[in-house]
């Protein structure tokens, strides 16, 4: 069962304790070395309580990933928004705020003890959003100066690289500052993609 707002507060609390225990243990010794007993003990619960909510540790991990990525996706806009030079893009603010709120999770999942598949799942989500925004701005791909697939791959992995750097350095800048910096880069990328000049910018 997914961790959502409809759950009883006591159930939500139990799920949160188990999630936090899993993330802490992954940071300490990696996912493969963790047992259900480890998770229950760290969460100060018993194994029977764990199995009332999840089938196994894989079920807990996958539902944790699903819930966090669903939260990320739901907070991002689905349409293209014209950026102003001095304002951070709303999507980027949300992404960095979301990562900050879930920093323990992202530090583990994007670090050496994380799961490689998570990085690709996250990159796929960001890439699909970029595809949607480009298509909304310019439906005719022949008019683009850079192939859309190449452009979205480049920007997606640039974003992820910056997010990993930010986490590894204990988030030295605020989410808004990070969003502002990437917005400036995003504007330059957009000019390249659409062949715009500064005077043509909104």
From TrEMBL:
PROSITE patterns, alphabetized: HTH_TETR_1, HTH_TETR_2
- State the coiled-coil residue ranges: none
Position of the signal peptide: none
Q: Which residues span the membrane?
A: 150-167
Extract the DNA-binding region annotation as residue ranges. Answer: 35-54
Q: What keyword terms does UniProt attach to this protein?
A: DNA-binding, Membrane, Transmembrane, Transmembrane helix
- Describe the location of the HTH tetR-type domain by residue ranges: 12-72
Per its UniProt record, what Pfam families does this chain match? Answer: TetR_C_8, TetR_N
According to the UniProt entry, its GO molecular function terms are: DNA binding
The record's listing under InterPro entries reads: DNA-bd_HTH_TetR-type_CS, Homeodomain-like_sf, HTH-type_Tx_Regulator, HTH_TetR, TetR_C_Firmicutes
Specify the protein name.
TetR family transcriptional regulator
Q: What is the lineage of its organism?
A: Bacteria, Bacillati, Bacillota, Bacilli, Bacillales
């Amino acid at each position: 069962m997914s961790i959502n707002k409809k759950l009883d507060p006591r159930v939500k609390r139990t799920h949160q304790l188990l999630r936090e225990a899993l993330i802490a243990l992954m940071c300490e010794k990696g996912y493969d070395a963790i047992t259900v007993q480890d998770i229950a003990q760290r969460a100060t619960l018993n194994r029977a309580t764990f199995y009332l909510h999840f089938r196994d540790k894989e079920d807990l991990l996958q539902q944790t990933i699903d819930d966090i990525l669903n939260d990320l996706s739901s907070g991002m806009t689905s349409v293209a928004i014209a950026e102003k030079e001095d304002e951070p893009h709303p999507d980027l603010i949300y992404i960095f705020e979301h990562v900050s709120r879930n920093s323990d999770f992202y530090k583990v999942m994007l670090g050496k003890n994380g799961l490689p598949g998570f990085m690709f799942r996250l990159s796929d989500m960001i890439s699909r959003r970029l595809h949607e925004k480009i298509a909304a701005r310019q439906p005719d791909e022949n008019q683009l100066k850079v192939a859309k697939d190449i452009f979205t791959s480049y920007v997606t992995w640039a974003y992820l690289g910056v997010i990993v750097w930010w986490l590894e350095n204990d988030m030295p800048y605020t989410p808004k500052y990070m969003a502002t910096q990437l917005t400036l880069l995003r504007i330059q990328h957009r000019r390249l993609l659409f062949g715009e000049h500064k005077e043509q910018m909104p």
